[in-house]
Structure formats: structure tokens, C-alpha cells
Specification:
The complex is a heterodimer of chains A (about 325) and B (about 270).
Chain A lengths: L9 H4 L39 H14 L1 H4 L10 H4 L1 H4 L7 H5 L4 E3 L4 E3 L1 H12 L10 H13 L26 H11 L1 H4 L6 E3 L2 E4 L17 H11 L10 H11 L14 H8 L10 E2 L2 E2 L14 H5 L2
Helix pairs in contact in A: 2-8, 7-8, 9-12, 11-12
Chain B lengths: L1 H12 L1 H19 L8 H18 L7 H12 L8 H5 L19 H13 L7 H6 L3 H12 L14 H13 L10 H4 L18 H13 L8 H7 L4 H13 L14
Chain lengths: ~325, ~270
């Protein structure tokens, strides 16, 4: 892994979903690894949501967060929910809780080379993790999500990474992460929920266990496409309710397996896989452009398109 | 009289069932003073079971083109053999169960889920002194057939259970929908789906299931009873629940509309 373990994982916090290895938020002081040792912040209960216009925004924000495909359909291009990775609707420490993200913005982002507002950071989630379209700044969807995050962070100081933010740091693997070992971990610990084919499971037409790859999952630009981020998330949170039950090596292996599958194109695709890798994926945490099972990951011939918002949803927005 | 005998047998085995039985007896005492609530008494269970048995005899085997379906229906309503009551004696001809005393609804559960559980009862992987002899007496094909039968029944209208206090329902709703950041509890919906509809054979439909049944199962998970071997998840979850949490979750789940795509009932706004 090219990313030294000493680099704070604060950047991952913003980001279960959309941060690439290049995203770096400030506030590197606190390692989320400490989250399990220190008492994490507890966000206010739902009953604390005020009445009135602001409370309405908070409630709408939580609805979008839980069911973006229903309440923000114009911007969502896959079957994921925000709450698939930000567990317990963005409340749970160690799974990139929204209260932890909220207090560290505005922040400089190396990914786009300027200081980003929280809203702009949310745009990245739609572009990459949701494989959708970017809501314009000030869009009601972003205002609602920002209101919800603000509500959850009530009482936290700004510009300090609180314990429980992001994903807990994970030690480097003892041996080089391995696709085949990862496949075995996947079969033993993940397939019951996510399916042997990685396409997830639905109930009554609603996705419950999210697809981890394929055309309805996150695209190559998403934070989960980084093996390091995925390994940290998996180790801390998977299988659900049994965080910490896999060894770090198992987490690295299975993250490598999941992030070596076919998924939608990086929306920054330049027209050349090699060039796109060189510009955006030139690190050991990305399998983009690598050959796996005889095929080049990201090859347009076998890669679903980026930004697949249904035309009907776009018109109806 | 089978139902009562069976329940009492189990009461010896399980503290959770003892609680349930005490609740039955309490309701029985209540019913003596308040005849209008006799529907919830243990005494009524006996009458209801006898009535069921009568209905079962009268109904005869269900008509079905498919042989397996006929087998499933026959086992469900007539029993696999003469010396054993039919599934329907406790779970009802309509598969509604007896929610007030913790006998679960089977109608509309996933067929593979029911078949899997029967398999675990038979092998002892899931320990239950009532169900094990029934499951052991069936072949895997028969278990599958009877599972298909109950899975295919329409979900009956939920029995109007004794309504839980609003504060308890609110606590249940918070845990069910949002988990608990303090104890790192995962929300039930993360696995059981929006409003507890359940996912395939893996996570059962909780919406509208018997509250006493759900509470009993959560206690069993927490106590480390032998269970569905895939259920290590539930053991980890239940370990984070207090007994009050369990009661609240059970009351809330029972209040949810069990029908697919159904709107939530009064407990949820």
C-alpha cells in the first residue's frame, strides 16, 4: 500500500462514499482509530428535531438520506442509499457519521484544488457514490441534507475531528492483499447478504443489502473504490452488528476482492483507461486499469456508464 | 388440550416461555373479571385449538393440482400422522398464529425461511422442545412442502394486540429505525428492510409478527440459545439490548403493517 499508515484517515471520514485517495480534509489531529477507545459523540435523538421550517428540512434530509432513490431521484443513478455506508442513518460512530463530517467543513480538497463547502462535498457523493448527477448548489436536496447533518452535529465543536469520525484506521496487512483469499472471505462472511454475485438483495422492491459491484453500485470515482477505505469500513462495520470480527488481513483481502469487480465508469474518464488511471488512480489502493480475470477494469467495452440517472426522473425533478 | 400441554412443557425449559405463560395466566385472571377480554385468555386458547381441530377435520385436504402442494396443505391442516396435531392447531388454518401468546404467524413468511427453520428444529441447531418433534417427523421434502403452503397464504389482518404504551412504542421505533449510537446498535431496518419487511430466506419479516414471539426470540438470542447457525449477527445485536429494549422493539415491530407495501399503522407516523 502506498499510503503510509501514519496518514490520518480524516479524509475518509467525509467519505464513506465519495472520497478518493486524493481527497484530504484538514483536521488531521485525531485518528478515528481512537474512536473505539474514547466515548464517541452521541447525536441528538429524533425527538429533538424542532417544529417549524427548519425541522421540516431536517426531517426531509433524513428521508433523502434513507431513500435517496425515492426522495432525490433526479440525482441518483444506482440502488444505493446514503445509509448503506453511513449506518444508522448517519448516526453511527466509525461508519463516517454525518455529525463527524459536518464539523470539518469548509475544507481544502486536493481532489479539486480548492476549499469546498459542505454542500460541494455532498455533490461529490451524488457524482461518484450514487453514480448520479450533481445537484446544483442551493438545490433543495442539498439544503435538506445539510440541515440534517447540522442537526446531528449539534453540540460538537467545528474544525476538530471528533472521536468516531470517519472509519477507524486499520493496520497494514501482514501480507499483500490477495484476490483469491478475499473471494473466500466474501463467500464465508458477505455473500449471505450481498449475494454471491455481489448484486445485493431487495425486499418488496426496495434494496436492503446494497449491490457492491455491477451497474447499480458505486462508480470508479467513489471513496469505496479505494481498497484502503473499503477495508477500513469493512473491518469496523461488517458483517452488520459484528464489526471487528474479521481480522485486518481478511478485511484487506475482501476489500481487494470487492474493488476488483466491474462497476460503472469513473465520471472523469478521459477516453483512455491508461490515462485515467495515471491521472486519478495511480496508487496501490485502486484496481482501476488493472487486469483482473483477463479483463482490464474500466475498459469501456465491459464497463457500465457513469451517471445513469433515468431520463424520467431527470424530467420530473 | 394439546396446545396447553405443549406450552407448559416448554415453560419448564425456557425462562422466556415462563414469562409468556405467566402473562397468559395473568390474562386469564383478568378475563375472569372482565369477560369481554376472554379472547385473550389462556382458556380461550384451548377452546380455539379445539375449534381449529374441528375446522381442520371438516375442511379435509386442500384441493391442489400440484402433488407437493397437496402434501403441504395436508400436513399443515391434518398433520403428518394421526398421533400428532396439525401445524394449524397452533399456527391456525390461515397461518395467523396466536400472536397474544407468542405463537408466530407463518402466513407470508418466505418459504425458504420456514423450511430452513424446520430443518434447524429437526437437527437441533435451533432448540425448541415444541417444534423439534414435529420437524423431526417430516422429511426434507415434506418440510419444504409445508413451508410452501404457509408461505403462500395471504397475510391475515393483524390481531389487535394489547396496545403498548406510547413511550414504549416510541423507544421501539427509535431503536428499530435508527439503532443506538451509544451502544453501537445497528438499526433493525439495515437487515430486515424498510419497516421490517424481511429479505428473502435470510432475514424474516418482522412487521406485524407476534410481539411476545419477537421478545422471546430476542431473549433467546441474548441468552445464547442454540439458534439458526447463520444467526451470529443476531447474537451480537441482542447482546446490546436491555430487557426493556427488547420489549419496546417487540411492541413496535408487532405494530407495523405486515402486508407488502402496506403503510405503517398507528405506531408510526
Amino acid at each position: 500500500m502506498t499510503t503510509p499508515a501514519s496518514i490520518p484517515i480524516a479524509f475518509a471520514s467525509l467519505a464513506a462514499l465519495s472520497c478518493l485517495a486524493g481527497w484530504t480534509a484538514r483536521s488531521p489531529a485525531a485518528h478515528a482509530a481512537d474512536a473505539s477507545d474514547k466515548a464517541a459523540f452521541v447525536p441528538p435523538p429524533e425527538s429533538a428535531i424542532p417544529q417549524g421550517k427548519f425541522g421540516d428540512e431536517v426531517r426531509l434530509g433524513e428521508k433523502i438520506f434513507r431513500e435517496p432513490g425515492t426522495h432525490a431521484s433526479a440525482y441518483v443513478g444506482n440502488d444505493l442509499r446514503c445509509s448503506n455506508c453511513h449506518l444508522d442513518a448517519g448516526r453511527l460512530a466509525g461508519s463516517a457519521p454525518m455529525w463527524g463530517a459536518y464539523v470539518t467543513y469548509p475544507a481544502y480538497q486536493a481532489k479539486n484544488g480548492h476549499v469546498n463547502s459542505f454542500e460541494e462535498r455532498l455533490q461529490g457523493c451524488f457524482r461518484y457514490s450514487m453514480n448520479g448527477k450533481v445537484p446544483p448548489l442551493g438545490d433543495p436536496v442539498l439544503v435538506a441534507l445539510e440541515s440534517y447533518s447540522f442537526f446531528l452535529a449539534k453540540g460538537l465543536p467545528t474544525d476538530e475531528a471528533p472521536p468516531g469520525r470517519g472509519f477507524p484506521a486499520l493496520p497494514k496487512p501482514d501480507t499483500k492483499p490477495d484476490y483469491d483469499r478475499g473471494a473466500q472471505v466474501y463467500a464465508d462472511h458477505c455473500a449471505a447478504c450481498h449475494g454471491g454475485d455481489g448484486l445485493g438483495q431487495s425486499a418488496d422492491g426496495k434494496v436492503v443489502f446494497p449491490p457492491l459491484w455491477g451497474p447499480r453500485s458505486y462508480n470508479w470515482g467513489a471513496g469505496m473504490g479505494s481498497i484502503k477505505n473499503a477495508a477500513e469500513f469493512i473491518h469496523a462495520n461488517m458483517p452488520l452488528g459484528m464489526g471487528g470480527s474479521l481480522t485486518p488481513q481478511q478485511a484487506w483481502d475482501v476489500a481487494t476482492y470487492v474493488d476488483s469487480q466491474v462497476r460503472p465508469q469513473d465520471p472523469r474518464f478521459t477516453g483512455s483507461v491508461a490515462e485515467t488511471r495515471a491521472k486519478f488512480h495511480d496508487n496501490a489502493n485502486s484496481m482501476y486499469g488493472q487486469t483482473v480475470n483477463g479483463a482490464v477494469l474500466g475498459d469501456p467495452a465491459s464497463t457500465p456508464p457513469a451517471g445513469t440517472v433515468p431520463a424520467a426522473a431527470e424530467q420530473g425533478k | 388440550m394439546n396446545t396447553v400441554r405443549i406450552i407448559r412443557m416448554d415453560a419448564v425449559q425456557s425462562p422466556a416461555h415462563s414469562r409468556m405463560m405467566m402473562r397468559c395466566e395473568a390474562m386469564d385472571r383478568l378475563a375472569r373479571n372482565r369477560p369481554q377480554r376472554a379472547l385473550r385468555t389462556g382458556r380461550f386458547i384451548v377452546m380455539r385449538s379445539l375449534l381449529c381441530a374441528f375446522v381442520i377435520q371438516a375442511a379435509g385436504p386442500a384441493r391442489a393440482d400440484d402433488k407437493a402442494a397437496t402434501i403441504g396443505a395436508t400436513i399443515a391442516v391434518q398433520g403428518a400422522s394421526r398421533d400428532r396435531p396439525a401445524c394449524a392447531a397452533c399456527h391456525g388454518v390461515d397461518g395467523a398464529g396466536q400472536p397474544d401468546v407468542g405463537i408466530p404467524r407463518l402466513a407470508g413468511l418466505h418459504a425458504s425461511y420456514i423450511a430452513d427453520q424446520l430443518g434447524y428444529f429437526a437437527s437441533g441447531k435451533r432448540r425448541n422442545p415444541i417444534m423439534s418433534p414435529y420437524a423431526e417427523a417430516l422429511t426434507p421434502d415434506q418440510r419444504r412442502a409445508v413451508a410452501d403452503y404457509f408461505a403462500g397464504l395471504p397475510i391475515p389482518a393483524p390481531v389487535d394486540a394489547v396496545s403498548a404504551p406510547p413511550a414504549q412504542l416510541e423507544r421501539g421505533r427509535a431503536l428499530f429505525q435508527r439503532g443506538d449510537a451509544q451502544t453501537k446498535l445497528i438499526a433493525c431496518t439495515q437487515c430486515h428492510g424498510p419497516n421490517g419487511v424481511g429479505v428473502g430466506s435470510f432475514t424474516p419479516r418482522l412487521a406485524g409478527q407476534s410481539g411476545p414471539y419477537i421478545a422471546d426470540q430476542l431473549h433467546r438470542w441474548r441468552d445464547g440459545d442454540p439458534r439458526d447457525p447463520r444467526g451470529s449477527y443476531m447474537q451480537a445485536i441482542a447482546a446490546r439490548l436491555s430487557s426493556d429494549d427488547i420489549e419496546a422493539l417487540a411492541a413496535y415491530a408487532a405494530s407495523l403493517d405486515p402486508k407488502p407495501g402496506g403503510s405503517q399503522r398507528s405506531a408510526d407516523r
